[in-house]
Amino acid sequence: MADRKRTKSEERSYVELIDEIFQLEIWHRQNQLKLRHIPEGWEGIEAAHPCRRRKSKLTANFDSDVVKWFRGMGHGYQARMNAVLRIYMLSVVSKEIRRRGDKDWKGDPI
């Protein structure tokens, strides 16, 4: 099969994919450094002492392609969406990733 030129949409998605992979590689390297400082048995704490978080009902609008993709994963897609949002929230709160609002009035990082 001969290779064909990508459409604009495919090219944009491809560029985003390459960027995401690059960011994941950076995260992976940094994460490996962090994991060296975590004590043994730390991963088992959640299983040994489970806590059920309180849930809140919310009506939200998501892009249709995002919803279709998560629903395509099958049962439990809302829990997976929640997990992705939780990871983003914790990353922002821990300053692992920066937001536009993470600057003071002079524009210096907080």
Can you walk through the features of this model?
The protein is mainly α. It contains 4 helices and no strands.
Q: What is the average per-residue confidence, as pLDDT, rounded to a whole number? A: 79
Please report the total strand number as a whole number. Answer: 0
Tell me the distance between the termini.
Answer: 53 Å
Helix-strand sequence: HHHH
Question: What count of helical segments does DSSP give?
Answer: 4
Give the overall silhouette. Answer: extended
Q: Percent helix among the residues?
A: 40-55%
In short:
By secondary structure, this protein is an all-alpha fold. The chain has helices at residues 8-35, 45-48, 64-71, 77-93.
Task: Give a topology summary.
Layout: H1 8-35, H2 45-48, H3 64-71, H4 77-93
